C-alpha cells in the first residue's frame, strides 16, 4: 500500500506549501525587527530583506513529516495494529521506524545549526565540523541496522580492485565528509538572490524524478519510497520560499 502512503504524503506536501506561502510574508516584519535582515544590493533602493527564513520553512517541513510519521506503518500489513489486543505485533518494522526518526533528528540538528550560523556568524571551521555532528544519528542507526561498508567500484577500477571493495571505517568518514560538502555547496551561495533556494529546488526535483523512475522500474523500491517521503514535502516548502526569494 505504498502508493496510498505516497498519495497522502503528496497531500500533506500541498498543505505545507500553502502554509509556507501564507507564513512567509506574515513573519517578514518580525524577522526585520529581530535584526535578521540584509539589504538587497541587486536593487537601486537596496530594500531590507529578511534573512534566516530557512528556519521557518524548515519548521513547516518538519511539522509535515511529523504528521506523516504513522502513515507508512498504518498501511503496512506487517505493522498494522492488533485490533484484538491493541499495540503493535512482533512483526512491526522497527528498523524502518528508527530510520525515519533518525533522519528527522538529523534534519532538526541541521536546521538548528543553520539558524545558529545566521545568528552567531560562525567561522568556516565550525561550518566544516557541525554538519558532520548532525549526521551522527543517521550514521549510528546505519551502523546498528546494516553496517555494510562495501562499495561497488566503477568499471574502470574493477580490473584493479574487483567489482566491490570493503573500505571499513572509511565508509563512515566518507559519509560524514559528504554531508559537509553538500551543506556548504548550498550555503556558500547564500546572499545571491534566489540562487541558494533555486539550486535546492533543482536538486530536490531531480532526486524526486530519479526516485519515481526507479520506483516504476522496481529497483530498490523501499529505498526510493523512503526518499520520496522526504523529497515531496521538501520540494513543496522549498518552492514556497523560492516564490518570494527569486
Automatic annotation (TrEMBL):
<feature type="transmembrane region" description="Helical">
    <location>
        <begin position="53"/>
        <end position="75"/>
    </location>
</feature>
<feature type="transmembrane region" description="Helical">
    <location>
        <begin position="165"/>
        <end position="189"/>
    </location>
</feature>
<dbReference type="InterPro" id="IPR000715">
    <property type="entry name" value="Glycosyl_transferase_4"/>
</dbReference>
<protein>
    <recommendedName>
        <fullName>UDP-N-acetylglucosamine--dolichyl-phosphate N-acetylglucosaminephosphotransferase</fullName>
        <ecNumber>2.7.8.15</ecNumber>
    </recommendedName>
</protein>
<comment type="pathway">
    <text>Protein modification; protein glycosylation.</text>
</comment>
<comment type="similarity">
    <text>Belongs to the glycosyltransferase 4 family.</text>
</comment>
<dbReference type="GO" id="GO:0005789">
    <property type="term" value="C:endoplasmic reticulum membrane"/>
</dbReference>
<feature type="transmembrane region" description="Helical">
    <location>
        <begin position="97"/>
        <end position="116"/>
    </location>
</feature>
<dbReference type="InterPro" id="IPR033895">
    <property type="entry name" value="GPT"/>
</dbReference>
<keyword id="KW-0479">Metal-binding</keyword>
<dbReference type="Pfam" id="PF00953">
    <property type="entry name" value="Glycos_transf_4"/>
</dbReference>
<comment type="function">
    <text>UDP-N-acetylglucosamine--dolichyl-phosphate N-acetylglucosaminephosphotransferase that operates in the biosynthetic pathway of dolichol-linked oligosaccharides, the glycan precursors employed in protein asparagine (N)-glycosylation. The assembly of dolichol-linked oligosaccharides begins on the cytosolic side of the endoplasmic reticulum membrane and finishes in its lumen. The sequential addition of sugars to dolichol pyrophosphate produces dolichol-linked oligosaccharides containing fourteen sugars, including two GlcNAcs, nine mannoses and three glucoses.</text>
</comment>
<feature type="transmembrane region" description="Helical">
    <location>
        <begin position="128"/>
        <end position="145"/>
    </location>
</feature>
<keyword id="KW-0472">Membrane</keyword>
<keyword id="KW-0812">Transmembrane</keyword>
<keyword id="KW-0256">Endoplasmic reticulum</keyword>
<dbReference type="GO" id="GO:0016757">
    <property type="term" value="F:glycosyltransferase activity"/>
</dbReference>
<dbReference type="GO" id="GO:0006488">
    <property type="term" value="P:dolichol-linked oligosaccharide biosynthetic process"/>
</dbReference>
<keyword id="KW-0328">Glycosyltransferase</keyword>
<dbReference type="GO" id="GO:0003975">
    <property type="term" value="F:UDP-N-acetylglucosamine-dolichyl-phosphate N-acetylglucosaminephosphotransferase activity"/>
</dbReference>
<feature type="transmembrane region" description="Helical">
    <location>
        <begin position="224"/>
        <end position="242"/>
    </location>
</feature>
<dbReference type="GO" id="GO:0046872">
    <property type="term" value="F:metal ion binding"/>
</dbReference>
<keyword id="KW-0808">Transferase</keyword>
<keyword id="KW-0460">Magnesium</keyword>
<keyword id="KW-1133">Transmembrane helix</keyword>
<feature type="transmembrane region" description="Helical">
    <location>
        <begin position="6"/>
        <end position="24"/>
    </location>
</feature>
Amino acid at each position: 500500500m505504498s502508493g496510498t502512503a505516497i498519495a497522502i504524503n503528496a497531500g500533506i506536501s500541498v498543505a505545507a506549501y500553502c502554509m509556507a506561502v501564507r507564513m512567509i510574508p506574515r513573519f517578514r516584519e518580525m524577522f526585520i525587527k529581530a535584526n535578521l535582515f540584509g539589504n538587497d544590493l541587486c536593487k537601486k533602493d537596496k530594500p531590507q530583506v529578511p534573512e534566516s527564513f530557512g528556519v521557518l520553512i524548515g519548521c513547516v517541513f518538519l511539522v509535515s513529516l511529523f504528521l506523516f510519521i504513522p502513515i507508512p506503518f498504518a498501511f503496512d500489513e506487517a505493522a498494522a495494529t492488533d485490533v484484538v489486543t491493541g499495540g503493535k505485533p512482533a512483526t512491526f518494522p522497527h528498523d524502518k521506524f528508527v530510520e525515519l526518526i533518525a533522519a528527522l533528528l538529523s534534519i532538526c540538528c541541521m536546521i538548528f545549526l543553520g539558524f545558529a550560523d545566521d545568528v552567531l556568524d560562525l567561522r568556516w571551521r565550525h561550518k566544516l565540523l557541525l554538519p558532520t555532528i548532525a549526521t551522527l544519528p543517521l550514521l549510528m542507526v546505519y551502523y546498528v541496522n546494516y553496517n555494510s561498508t562495501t562499495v561497488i567500484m566503477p568499471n574502470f577500477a574493477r580490473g584493479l580492485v574487483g567489482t566491490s571493495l570493503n573500505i571499513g571505517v572509511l565508509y563512515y568518514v566518507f559519509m560524514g565528509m559528504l554531508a559537509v560538502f553538500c551543506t556548504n555547496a548550498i550555503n556558500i551561495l547564500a546572499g545571491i538572490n534566489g540562487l541558494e533556494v533555486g539550486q535546492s529546488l533543482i536538486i530536490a526535483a531531480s532526486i524526486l524524478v530519479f526516485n519515481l523512475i526507479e520506483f516504476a522500474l522496481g529497483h530498490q523500491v523501499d529505498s526510493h519510497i523512503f526518499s520520496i517521503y522526504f523529497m515531496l514535502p521538501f520540494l513543496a516548502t522549498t518552492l514556497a520560499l523560492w516564490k518570494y526569494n527569486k
